[in-house]
Each structure stands twice: as structure tokens, then as C-alpha cells.
Amino acid sequence: MAGSRQRNVAIFLDMENLFGGYGNDVTSVPLATVVRAIEKVVGDTGLGGRTALARAYANWGRPDMAGYRSQLLAHNIKPVQIFSFDQPSKNAADIELVVDALEVAADMPWIELFVIVSGDGDFVPLLRRLHALGKRSLVATTSQPNAGVVNKVLQSVADHFHVIDIPAPAVVVPVPAVKKPPAPAKPAKKKTAPHTELELYKASVHAFLKDDPTLWVKGLVNAPRLGQLLRDRWPNVTYKTFGYKTLTAFAEQGCGLKVTTAPVAKAASKALS
Q1: Three-state secondary-structure class, residue 149
Q2: C-alpha closest to that of 161 among 136, 135, 140
Q3: Residue 54: enclosing H or E segment and its boundaries?
Q4: May I ask the CATH architecture of the domain 7-164?
Q5: The pTM is what?
Q6: CA distance 13 to 57
Q7: Closest Cα to residue 52, out of 130, 107, 118, 122?
Q8: DSSP character string of 65-123
Q9: What 3 state SS string does 200-258 have?
Q10: How many CA atoms lie within 13 A of 57 on its CB side?
């Protein structure tokens, strides 16, 4: 029911559209501000309830995209890797987003509101199909210049359109320096990263446990199934990267879980029975 507090909202962020392509500053999109603004407008308009899932589509393998890690974790946003970023087609992210949205519409009937964060007119057929399936739609973009012009047809097809106001960075006016005696040197503070790759890896495990019922077998975590999901999400990283000899050791010692090593097919059958 629209306006309720149930989790019936799905957010899909076309990152490449928001920062205007990889030739621009890819770290310019304030994800935390964008997600909070979407959740506020959803609540204010009564279009939906709480967020059930949020996915962001981009080439997350680029080193300059690493600055988004803390925001992805803080707001439970799943980064979806676009693998065809070296190919001539510039619509790989759009295609992946459309396929995922239609899959969610088919597999998760409780999702009632689909939020598309993009101004790309390629999403017009997606919104029309979602409406035919009885779903509502919200199109959002930001006021940042690199986000570009929003397609007029996309605006008209959406049930609601919203521009998220992102204040321009303040211009700092330099003040003439006043010479002062040099202060005593202080020992430099050791900088530590708030979120490491290990934390992202563990966060993936907990996200899988929340979303995939086939991971549970009589209160235990199905280790073969968990390993399969981790390999799909992290093709270049394993538990050995963080010093664990086995997946079981990582799950039990690193994540505090109890596991079973039953075969995937058998465990999944029991979990779903």
C-alpha cells in the first residue's frame, strides 16, 4: 500500500548518467544525499514506504570509484559491475539496469515503487512496461551540471519526477597570510581508512544472508552456496586475500557464523521445502 512503512521501494542509480561519463569527475555524485532525498520525497508524496533494495550501476573496478565505498556500505547500496566498459556500446549500464528492474518486478511482487535515478530517455520503455505490470515509478536526477538534461518523454511517463538539489561547492576566497612564529611540530596522526575491502567483503556476506533463503539450512549457513555467490560478486577477491585458509574459517572466524558444508543443490532444496 502506498504510504505504508513496508519495504516496497526499489532504487536503481545510473551512475554514469549522474556524473556525465568517465571523462568527468566520477566522484562528484553525493550518493548519501541522493538516497536520503529520494526516501524523503517517497515519504512526502505517499508513493511508497521504505527502501527494500538499492543498486548502483557503474564500472566499479576503476580506482577512482573507490571513494564511494563508505557511502555504499552506509546506505546498503549494492554496486553492480558493468563489465563491457571497454566496448564501443555506451548503453551497457542501461541494459543491465532494465534487465534487473524487470527481474525484480517479476520475482518480488511486494515491490510497488521503482525509482530510476537517471535522465536517460532509454528508460521510457521500461517505465511503460512497469506501469503495465501495475507498478508505480519515480524518476529522479540531480541539479549538478554533469547530470545533463532530462529527457522530456521520460519526465512525462513517470508517475512522479523530482530534481535533487545539490548545493554548489562554496567558493573559498583566499585571505592574505599573516606571518606568525612557527608553531612546535606535532606528531602526524596516523590515517586509517574507515572501510576496508575486507569490510566490503563481509558486508556482501550479510547482504546475501538477508536476501537469499537458499543460504540457510536448519539455522546453518550453506557454505558451498555462499562461496558460489561470493565468487560471482567478487571474481578477483577470495577469503584467502584476507589470510583465511578456508571459506569455513572466514565465515566462522571472520563473520561469526555457523556453517554447513552440505552440497549446494541438496541444501537449497531443504531450505526451500
Answers
A1: coil
A2: 140
A3: strand 50-58
A4: 3-Layer(aba) Sandwich (3.40)
A5: 0.59
A6: 6
A7: 107
A8: GGGGHHHHHHTTEEEEE-TTTTSS-S-HHHHHHHHHHHHHHHH-TT--EEEEE---GGG
A9: HHHHHHHHHHHHCHHHEECCEEEHHHHHHHHHHHCCCCCHHHHCCCCHHHHHHHHCCCC
A10: 25
Q: How many CA atoms lie within 13 A of 233 on its CB side?
A: 19
Residue 202 exposure: Cα atoms within 13 Å on the Cβ side: 16
Cβ count near 36 (within 10 Å): 13
Residue 235 one-letter amino acid: P
Residue 268: per-residue pLDDT = 45
Query: 10-residue block means of pLDDT along the chain (273 residues)?
Result: 74 90 82 91 92 92 86 90 61 90 96 94 96 96 87 95 82 63 65 63 83 83 86 84 87 85 55 43
C-alpha cell at 201: 567483503
Q: Rounded to whole angstroms, how far apart are CA atoms 270 and 273?
A: 5
Helix and strand numbers, DSSP H then E, in the chain: 10, 9
Angle at 56 between CA 51 and CA 58, to 5 degrees: 180
Give the C-alpha separation, 255 to 118, whole Å: 36
Sign of CA pseudo-dihedral 249, 254, 259, 263: negative
Pairing state between β 136-142 and 113-117: parallel
What are the cell numbers at 91?
548503453
pLDDT at residue number 264: 52
3-class DSSP assignment, residue 160: strand
Q: Which amino acid is at 34?
A: V
